[in-house]
């Protein structure tokens, strides 16, 4: 329950007005319920012609005796008066109509209390998804290198859905039932404290038996949700690798893998649901058992004339039966909520994930790039192994610096340090003499444009993809950027031109077309610093020529850091740095490096041999 209260304290405050209204209507509903059922006493007295009301010949003053005695006497006095004026049958009808009216008001309050909970329930789920999405977009890239996409998707969908179906669906009963239980319990004490104390003696035993079934539910729910994540991860991997699966005729192999994890998820889900379904029949049986025990003891009190009349005892049993339903709902919540708490634990692994890339409380602001980028004694590691060691590099404004070397040597990691996708463990990365850790992250990344090996496009129109990083871009600005990127002609050849959708991740376009749209996006952003991460390595010769031409337009007047495998694309760079095992082992222009007869010349000779 502590975990549930913590969740409520986190998410309910924006909806406290709805919560207050729900509590008010629940209190009214409980009071009206007790008041309406009190009409059963005079009805039973009339029907069975008891002698309970004979002595009520005059009104007793409030405070003039025992509250229960005064209330019983005055009610009997008014019933006798009605019988004397209208007769027994008409009085019975009047009391019945009174019961109908109070029940109508009671059910109206019941509806309003439930309706007040709906904005809380739906709002919390919406806020939870928004918080998850915002957290995902704000977390550093390093977090996602350790997490599976399918697992994150499962938490956004399955886990949030489980919280909605278990915790949020229990909100109404959790806010309503305590009020009903307190009101009914107070009424039972008022009617007969002896019978109520006897009832209380057996309730804890019933509660312990009902709680025993749900003790392992949370643990099983965590395992089930983990297996659901495995299922979603496999679906995500399958969608991403469908071409390879078909190429290697591995459909049956993947089907068997999926069936294995899916069947395991089903087996655990069956255990969870079976245990959950046990809640209602067990609570029904134990509730009936409790009613029978109380009926025996209460009947003994009535038969021995021990301060409890027959009609009052029946009213007591009606109230007792009324309190059983809220207790059963509590037991149901006791089964539902652990499932939601298990999912909430998995959601919190994202919501409470550490933000390793933090901005200073008062960051320095920069609105332009004027001098140079400097790597000063930079060393970096992802885990235990050093990826970069003692990097010293200065990139002056307007210059193009190329990074070449073996795969896994640290080239991409080096450029990722400039926009602070990762933070260095040793040394400094400086922009115009200011440590990037001291700059506002938004200001820093506004200075930088990226064109990557894999052009990342969204399932949106050409216009929206190109204008993605620029607010309020005009149609002319987008078209001009597309022309410079050699993308205008093929865009205009599509059915809806710039309003044509590019498909999921640009799937309707060729590799060269996707890359030129990506370049157009960078051109429109117009950043002073440009990072090219093997922007042409995956393209055919014709596409490479068009993309390289677009890149030349993009690189004009900009400071460029280019990672390249094809050395032919960076021969004109102002400086080429050869990175080997995390260190800069050679640097200079193309001709200077060839003359050194070292790593660079070996790479150049291998590529020349391979191209022949």
From TrEMBL:
It is found in: Cell membrane. It is a multi-pass membrane protein. Pfam families: ABC_membrane (PF00664), ABC_tran (PF00005). Residues 20-339 form the ABC transmembrane type-1 domain. The chain crosses the membrane at residues 20-48, 89-112, 174-191, 285-303, 309-327. One of its GO terms (molecular function) is ATP binding. Keywords: ATP-binding, Membrane, Nucleotide-binding, Transmembrane, Transmembrane helix. Coiled coil: none annotated. Residues 373-606 form the ABC transporter domain. PANTHER family: ATP-BINDING CASSETTE SUB-FAMILY B, ATP-BINDING CASSETTE SUB-FAMILY B MEMBER 6. This is ABC transporter ATP-binding protein.
């Amino acid at each position: 329950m502590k975990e549930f209260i913590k969740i409520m304290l986190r998410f309910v405050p924006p909806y406290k007005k709805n919560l207050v209204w729900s509590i008010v209507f629940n209190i009214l509903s409980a009071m009206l319920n007790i008041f309406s059922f009190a009409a059963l006493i005079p009805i039973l007295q009339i029907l069975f012609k008891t002698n309970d009301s004979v002595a009520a010949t005059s009104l007793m003053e409030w405070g003039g005796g025992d509250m229960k005695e005064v209330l019983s006497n005055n009610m009997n006095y008014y019933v006798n008066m009605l019988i004397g004026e209208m007769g027994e049958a008409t009085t019975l009808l009047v009391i019945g109509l009174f019961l109908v009216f109070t029940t109508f008001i009671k059910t109206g309050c019941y509806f309003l209390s439930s309706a007040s909970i709906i904005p809380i329930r739906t709002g919390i789920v919406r806020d939870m998804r928004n918080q998850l999405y915002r957290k995902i977009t704000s977390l550093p890239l390093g977090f996602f290198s350790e997490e599976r996409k399918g697992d994150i998707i499962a938490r956004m969908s399955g886990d949030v859905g489980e919280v909605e179906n278990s915790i949020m669906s229990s909100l109404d009963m959790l806010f309503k039932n305590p009020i009903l239980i307190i009101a009914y319990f107070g009424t039972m004490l008022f009617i007969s404290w002896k019978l109520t104390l006897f009832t209380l003696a057996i309730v804890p035993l019933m509660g312990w038996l009902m709680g025993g079934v749900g003790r392992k539910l949370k643990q099983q729910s965590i395992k089930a949700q983990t297996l659901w994540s495995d299922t979603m991860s496999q679906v995500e991997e399958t969608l991403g690798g469908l071409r390879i699966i078909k190429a290697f005729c591995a459909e049956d192999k993947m089907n068997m893998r999926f069936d294995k994890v899916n069947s395991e998820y089903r087996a655990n889900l069956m255990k969870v649901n079976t245990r959950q379904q046990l809640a209602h029949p067990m609570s029904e049986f134990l509730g009936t058992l409790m009613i029978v025990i109380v009926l025996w003891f209460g009947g003994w009190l009535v038969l021995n004339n021990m301060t409890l009349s027959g009609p009052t005892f029946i009213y007591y049993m009606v109230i007792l039966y009324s309190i059983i339903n809220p207790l059963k709902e509590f037991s149901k919540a006791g089964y539902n909520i652990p499932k939601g708490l298990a999912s909430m634990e998995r959601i919190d692994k994202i919501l409470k994930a550490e933000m390793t890339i933090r901005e200073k409380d008062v960051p320095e602001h920069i609105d332009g790039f004027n001098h140079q980028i400097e790597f000063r004694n930079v060393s970096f590691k992802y885990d235990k192994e050093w990826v970069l060691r003692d990097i010293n590099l200065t990139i002056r404004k307007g210059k193009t610096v190329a990074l070449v070397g073996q795969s896994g040597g640290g080239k991409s990691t080096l450029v990722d340090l400039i926009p602070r996708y990762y933070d260095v463990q040793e040394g400094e990365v400086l922009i115009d003499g200011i440590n990037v850790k001291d700059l506002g992250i938004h200001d820093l990344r506004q200075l930088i444009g990226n064109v990557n090996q894999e052009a990342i496009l969204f399932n949106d129109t050409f216009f929206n993809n190109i204008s993605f990083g620029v607010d309020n871009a005009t149609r002319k600005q987008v078209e001009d950027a597309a022309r410079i990127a050699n993308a205008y002609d093929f865009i205009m050849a599509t059915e809806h031109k710039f309003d044509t959708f590019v498909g999921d991740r640009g799937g309707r376009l060729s590799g060269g077309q996707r890359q030129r749209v990506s370049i157009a996006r960078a051109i429109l952003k117009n950043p002073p610093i440009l990072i090219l991460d093997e922007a042409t390595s995956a393209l055919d010769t014709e596409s490479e020529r068009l993309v390289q031409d677009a890149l030349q337009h993009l690189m004009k007047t900009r400071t460029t850091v280019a990672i390249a495998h094809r050395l032919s694309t960076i021969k004109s760079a102002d400086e080429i740095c050869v990175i080997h095992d995390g260190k800069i082992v050679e640097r200079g222009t193309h001709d200077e490096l060839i003359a050194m007869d070292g790593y660079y010349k070996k790479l150049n000779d291998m590529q020349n041999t391979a191209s022949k």
